[in-house]
Amino acid sequence: MKIIGIVPARMAASRFPGKPLHPIAGRPLIEHCFLRGQLYNRWDGYFLATCDEEIRVFGEEKKFPVIMTANTHTRALDRVAEAAEKCGISLADNDIVVCVQGDEPLMTPDMIEAVVAPFEQDDKVPGTMLAVPITDESLYLNPDIVKIAHDKNNDILYTSRSPIPYSKSFSPELGAKRVGGIFGFRWKFLKWFTSQPESPLEIAEACDSNRICDNGFKQRMALIKPAPYFSVDSIEDVKLVEDALKNDPIWETY
Question: Where residue 230 falls among pLDDT bands split at 50, 70, 90?
Fold first, then answer.
């Protein structure tokens, strides 16, 4: 089973234009993400995928393998699927394509392994999603943070920007979880996913993972232990990441 990783990035992010090249602790955001993901030692191929010349130039200066994609993609997984087609590695239906989002500067190789492991444990799993426990009420209430509802088998039922599961008063014991920016797909399933139109729940929630449950399929949740983990969705998130990096052991390695 081959495992390839693709880091999608574009300059025209709606909430934070120019985000991939915005400096965090002296380095562009996309550099943090690519280098940290590169530490995972099981890749058969690992690539940066973009439609922007600025990102291409930066990536090639850093010796990152860059795949240019169409500038019409609005969803990261569409860019990932195109890049996987172009990566030069022949993929079988059950090989794994991992989307390592380009706005997750605190990811670790262990998180990537958590997303890969369910495919090896159960050959019926078509897709996986990193899940991070929510221990802070502000994250639970924040609509930028996508939350997860799941069943007893850790299969994802639904994702929402609303606080789910609902509770009159928040506590960590509620067991709320958020989507982390690492997603795994069997190659056949990713091709199916990107061939489908946007679904009703996907449009309503602005969460493309809901295309899966809308069509009767499920992703397996890859749950990690609570840890400092901040996506960069807005300029305000930059300071949160910089503060977290001060105590981050991986930061010291690159």
Answer: confident
Contact 193, 182 (CB under 8 A): no
Report the mean per-residue pLDDT for the chain.
95
Q: Which residues pair with 28 in a beta bridge?
A: 23
Average pLDDT of span 150-155: 96
Residue matched to tokens 């569409």: 78
- Say how many C-beta atoms besides its own lie within 10 A of residue 21's C-beta: 15
For the chain, the domains span 3-133+179-203+214-253
Q: Are residues 105 and 232 in contact, defined by beta-carbon separation less than 8 angstroms?
A: yes
Label residue 133 by pLDDT band (50, 70, 90): very high
Q: Is the bond preceding residue 165 a cis peptide, omega within 30 degrees?
A: yes
CA–CA separation, 180 and 99 (whole Å): 11
| Residue 13, pLDDT above cutoff 80 | no
Q: Is 65 exposed, middle or buried (0-12, 13-18, 19+ CB in 10 A)?
A: middle
Global pTM?
0.95
- In CATH, which of 3.30.450.20, 1.20.120.530, 3.90.550.10, 3.40.140.10 is domain 3-133+179-203+214-253? 3.90.550.10
The residue type at 87:
C
Q: Are strands 147-150 and 177-186 parallel, antiparallel or unpaired?
A: antiparallel
Q: Quote the distance between the C-alpha of residue 14 and its chain's center.
A: 17
pLDDT bin (cut points 50, 70, 90) of residue 18 is very high
Answer for the pair 216, 122: CB distance below 8 angstroms, yes or no: no
Percent of the chain with pLDDT over 90: 92
Radius of gyration of the chain (CA): 17
